[in-house]
Amino acid sequence: MSSSDSGRSASRSDRGAGKRGKSERKDKKDKRDKKDAFSASQFDQIMGAIGGVKSEVTDVKVKVSGVSGQLNHLQGEFTTFKEETTNKFDDVRQTLEAHSKNIKELQDKAKTGGGSGAADPNPYTPGFVPVSKRTVIFVGGFPYNTEKDLILQKLKEMAAPYDDNILDYYTTRKLTSFGKIKFKTSDDMWDFINGTKAVVFKFEDKALYHSIDKTESEIKLSKKVSAAVKLLKTHFETNGIPKADLKKYVDAEWNYGTVMFKDAPTSKFVIAFTKPKGQDDLVVNSEARVPWGLDLNEHVEGINAAARKK
Q1: Using one digit for the tens of pLDDT, what is the confidence trace for 267-285?
Q2: Are the beta carbons of 184 and 135 closer than 8 angstroms?
Q3: What are the residue boundaries of the structural domains of the chain, listed by start?
Q4: pTM (2 decimals)?
Q5: Nearest to 235 by CA among 298, 191, 174, 173
Q6: With left for phi above 0 and alpha for psi between -120 and 50, is residue 114 left, alpha or beta?
Q7: Second CATH level (architecture) for the domain 131-214
């Protein structure tokens, strides 16, 4: 081969190598561009995901903040409720303590005749016997003008299991509505009372009742107290107090002849009538002011007269 041919061949070889080199460089550049584009796309995706997470985190923070606000609100309401409830319980406790103190004062006054002197050691008669030590049972509920023999027969049936402990069965009249059973001792009487608590005695299908017998003075005092209580209850009911609530407004110490009513402004009981030491009749407490203008002095004579009615 001539030198000129060798030169042309070398030149063609050089041009081929140059084209291949250029093509390879172009391929590398394309690969780099694609890689860069892919990396940029991944970066955008990652940044987008991070942005979404940030947004979700922000939403969660907002929700947590809202829940925290609700919790604070509920805590505030609970604290207020707790304080109000505590205050109400304190008010109730103070009211109960005041009522307890007031009742104690009234009981003390009742025991001393409403402040008019020391109480009678013997409230009714010189021969007074405490209720728990008495020995006579009163049995009532018989039809008016029942024959004495029929009443005595029924009394004996009632007390048959206790007959060995009984001294007498008796009535005060030939025609009457009650009878009495006299036991040997007070313990014998209480055995009968406790042993017949669940028993309903009847006469001609009408229920009878029995209680420890009262002295004549006790009976008279009971009638006076009953009349005074009825007066006050009727007055309160007439002025709008429901019948079911009257016991909350009128009360009495029956054994001491003391009748009380509730003073609305103070919610304390005030003595209206009392039996002073050494007297049989009830008297008006001059300091009592009954609601709705009831004048107790206009009624006290009629109340005491109630004991004289048969």
Answers
A1: 899 999 999 988 889 999 9
A2: yes
A3: 15-111, 112-120+218-308, 131-214
A4: 0.49
A5: 298
A6: left
A7: 2-Layer Sandwich (3.30)
